[in-house]
Amino acid sequence: MAQFEHVGVPTDQPQPNETYLEGGKVHITDPAAHPYHFEYLRFEADSPMPERLQKNPHIAFKVEDLAAALEGENVLVEPFEPFDGLRVAFIVKNGVLMELMQDV
Question: Which residues touch 13 (CB under 8 Å, ≥6 apart)?
Answer without folding.
Answer: 42
